[in-house]
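pasting GH01721p (inferred by orthology to a D. melanogaster protein) for the record, 245 residues
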Amino acid sequence: MLKYQVRSSAVLNQNNKLLKSSTTSLHSPSPSVSTSNETLHVHNRSNSLTSLSSIDSSDSSDWGVLKVYTGCVKADTEYKTLKVSTSHTVKNVVQTILNKFRILYRDPNLFEIFMEVRTRIRGHEVKNLLLLSSNSRPLELQRCHPVNMSRFFLTISQNGVLVRIHDYLLNPQSNYKSLMLSKLTTCYETIALLLAMMRVDGSPEEYRLSLSLMESEQDLDMKDTVADIHMALEPHQKIIIRRVC
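structre below
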């Protein structure tokens, strides 16, 4: 299913400002970077379409090239060219780009992909920005429109919540970590992000986030969204991370 959200005029104006840095130099793009061994393949702009379609694909009709403009996230890199299949989602694309940029300590759920769709009405070009959901499939959406009539932009959401997680049980030299989290980020994803920040090996399943009460602790479900819990904390409550096995 193709999923996206059409932005209103007011939001479009705001996002047009956000995307301005990516659109001012589209006619003279700078080179992208080298190949990757990630799930999605990142290529130099000099690579041909044939070489992109021939990697890891027995059915080239299910694969294609996706150009994602990234100037809003990394000013010195205008875009990334990815080889993706019709099964790859926005979440796959975002994670691949963040890995290439070595953005390891930011919540991936804060990053969004907008699709700019251009159409002609009575001889005039009309542009619309669509915010894609995390399970949207960009290549499918791209194929729904004529060639060169759509573009993709990676941006950072402004709706993050600053969350404090106390980590003194894992690191006595530290009291807490402050994270900017999406309102969609779960306890499991938060633990994975914390372990990466602390450079601790291990599965998030070996840890738990707990709500510290006056004289007790209550483990949070791995599917709970941390930002919502943090915003509802009482002054005497806090969220801590601890190892369970």
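The CA atoms of residues 2 and 136 lie 6 Å apart.
Confidence is low (pLDDT under 50) at residues 8-12, 21-58.
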